[in-house]
Design a protein that fits this description.
The protein is α/β, with parallel strands linked by helices. It has two domains: 1-31, no CATH class; 37-336, TIM Barrel, CATH 3.20.20.70. The protein has twelve helices and twelve strands. The strands form two sheets. It has an eight-stranded parallel beta barrel, surrounded by nine helices. A two-stranded antiparallel ribbon has the order 6-7. Strand 8, helix 6 and strand 9 form a beta-alpha-beta unit. Helix 4 (109-120) runs parallel beside helix 5 (151-168) and helix 10 (286-297) runs antiparallel to helix 11 (303-316). The longest helix has 18 residues, at 151-168. It is globular. The structure holds ligand PBG. Ligand PBG is lined by residues 129, 131, 133, 141, 176-177, 212, 215-216, 229, 285-286.
Length: 337
């Protein structure tokens, strides 16, 4: 029996929040949000060759893999119940040029990866990005003419690349390059090519963020990038502008929306979900992953608990799912629970 004081009783009256928190079973009963394996999209990095799995130093636990190994990884992910993968290529430097022309090669690394995965593991979703940064010699997401990332020419190219990606078997096209008009152009190009059932997950609000560093190491664009991406990504200071940008993507036909990075932009997740009610995803990006891993490696935080708490925060903020490099770790954790 707890010691009651007159003072607290007078203040709380009959209202005591702690009743529902008093035992594990009450807490489970009143839990509002849950993370499940169905919430996970696993981004993976692919390299040319066969039989290679190489670690990415700034992303401990994340590897670059050749296509054969990516297929094995896809099988493992499917067995764990992970619904979808997002694939990113790290192609040979010789293949990168000013316009990212390799993005228009039917049998480029990204399309070979998709075809191989869909053949071996047809029941896992494959989500491909059409941004040009893995293919350009300057690391920008679009075509560089003089000092400018040209919008309309880039849009035409990414729309064509999207059709090749869909031809290879991609289930969802996820354009991350933030050019104006890209969603509508990709939708038209896909439909004209008979890909009505291929969806578009718009990287609707992609912020000009410092959290992408380890990713740029993973696909070897960090050293290439000239300048920054401020002329096409959104200023981290701007929330209303982000909603407006997403509005255009919805009008142009986006099936799903994404917010990127994730945790520093939970307000945007919430605003988009409230405004549109579309399936909304957060990308817990490489820098977010690296921070958790680094602090955990130092013994400063409990890495597994922080991982789970951050992912649950996305659910609470209204997200339907999360792109996360933790996907396999989380799926394993949830499976043994
Ligand atoms: C670029 C792209 C980026 C990421 C995926 N595609 C950002 C960038 O390099 O500017 C970041 C993913 C991550 O950090 O995990 N189209």
């Amino acid at each position: 029996m707890e010691n009651k004081t007159h003072l607290v009783d007078e203040i709380t009256g009959h209202r005591r929040m702690r009743r529902n928190r008093k035992a594990d079973w009450t807490r489970r009963l009143v839990q509002e949000n849950r993370l499940t394996v169905d919430d996970l999209i696993w981004p993976i990095f692919v390299i040319p060759g066969t039989g290679i799995v190489e670690p990415i130093p700034a992303m401990p636990g994340v590897n670059r893999m050749t296509v054969d190994k990516a297929v094995e990884a896809a099988k493992e992910a499917a067995d764990l119940g992970i619904p979808a993968l997002a694939t990113f290529p790290n192609i040979e430097m010789e293949l990168r040029d000013e316009t990212g022309s390799n993005s228009l090669e039917k049998n480029n690394l990204i399309n070979l990866t998709t075809a191989a995965i869909k053949k071996a593991v047809p029941n896992i979703g494959v989500i491909t990005d059409v941004a040009l940064d893995p293919f350009t010699s300057h690391g920008h997401d679009g075509i560089l003419r003089g000092n400018e990332i040209v919008n309309d020419e880039t849009v035409e190219q990414v729309a064509r690349a999207a059709v090749y990606q869909a031809d290879a078997g991609a289930d969802i096209i996820a354009p991350s390059e933030m050019m104006d008009g890209r969603i509508g152009a990709i939708r038209q190009a896909l439909d004209a090519a008979g890909h009505q059932s291929v969806g578009i997950m718009s990287y609707a609000t992609k912020f000009s963020s410092a959290f992408y560093g380890p990713y740029r190491e993973a696909i070897s664009t960090g050293g290439l990038l000239k300048g920054d991406k401020k002329t096409y990504y959104i200023d981290p200071a701007n929330g209303t502008e982000a909603v407006r940008d997403a509005t255009l993507d919805v009008e142009e036909g986006a099936d799903m929306l994404m917010v990127k990075p994730g945790l520093p932009y939970l307000d945007i997740c919430w605003r988009l979900k409230e405004a549109f009610g579309l399936p909304t995803f957060a990308y817990q990006v490489s820098g977010e992953y690296a921070m958790i891993k680094a602090a955990a490696a130092n013994g400063w935080i409990d890495g597994e608990k922080v991982m789970l708490e951050t992912l649950l925060a996305f659910k609470r903020a209204g997200c339907d799912g999360i792109l996360t490099y933790f996907a396999v770790d989380v799926a394993r954790h949830l499976a043994k629970k």
